[in-house]
Amino acid sequence: MICRFSDLRCKEVISIKTGARIGFVDDMEFDSCTAKICRIIVYGRSKCFGLLGREDDLVINWCDIEIIGEDTVLVSCDVSCGKKKKGNFLSNLLK
Q1: Residue 11: CB partners within 8 Å, gap ≥ 6?
Q2: Residue 17 belongs to a domain with what CATH number?
Q3: Which residues constitute the domain of residue 39?
Q4: Among 4, 41, 68, 86, which lies 20 to 30 A Cα-Cα from 92?
C-alpha cells in the first residue's frame, strides 16, 4: 500500500493497549541519510482555545505502529509514552 503524508494526516491514532483515542498524525520525523520515517508526532490538545498553549506533544516511534488501516493508525504504546515537552508562551513568561 502506498500512502502519502496527506493521506496519513487524515487518519486517527488509537492505542491498542488502552483503546484511547490519541489524536491525528500532525508531523513526521525522518532520517535524511536513509530516507526512513523514524517517528510520527501527534500535537497536544489546545488549552482554553489555544490561549493557554497546549498539552505535550506525543512522539510515537515507527516501530510502535502496528497497523495503518483505512481510517486509523493503531499503535502499541499507551498515551503517556514518548511525550515531548513543548514550552508554551505563558510558561515562558512566568519563568
Answers
A1: 24, 25, 68, 69, 71, 72, 73
A2: 2.30.30.240
A3: 5-94
A4: 41
